[in-house]
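The protein record filed here.
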Amino acid sequence: MVSDIALMKHHVNVLFKKDDNNRMTFVNEPPNEAAPRIFIGGTQLGNVVRYSNALEENVIKKLERSIHADFAIDLAEIITILNTDRQISNFWTGPAFVFPDVSSITTKAIRITDFNKDCLKQNFPYIYEVLKYKRPCFAIIEDEAAVSVCCSARQTNEAAEASLATFETYRGRAYAIDASIAWAAETQSQGLLALYSTSWDNFASQSVAKKLHLIQYGTDIHMK
């Protein structure tokens, strides 16, 4: 069984590219924007912390004094240090989950390939354009159009993070559940961890996680 702290390390590696010094460089998803200045992943077993390679060493040393490998994080001090260096432009925080084994669950979602991807054009034109980066991709189809889609937002050789979207007029029909399970089953069949994360203010996404019986292994914070 993979520990919570190991899952958090997989999570940050899925989210962001890194250099040889384990410093974050870019978001692991086109158009590969600059990574945040800091990532803090808190678990019951301790914290996983990563810094941007754009941060000066003196700033990192100040941050390290406010962050410990166990549980002690002075968030106010971290924000002060970053704001002194440069005003924080984005603050993200939310729960991180892993899918349980879903290999035995059947759904009515279908795999999206190059042969049937036209079904994405109507409601999910962006996914249609970048499908080659999003596989595996599964969808619920209504009237020959995809109405709920789950695909890989970002991935490594060890894990993949789910990206889930349902067209507004088709929400509330459990389509997202089917699409997510199909994606997770295929991801797990490839020997990868199937991960899912969201923000604390995204109540709809948290509701999906609850209905899927996902297992929360921690909470992450990242700031630009």
Summary: The chain is about 30% helix and 30% strand. The CA atoms of residues 177 and 208 lie 7 Å apart. The helical segments are 4-15, 57-64, 75-85, 125-129, 131-134, 175-189, 203-211.
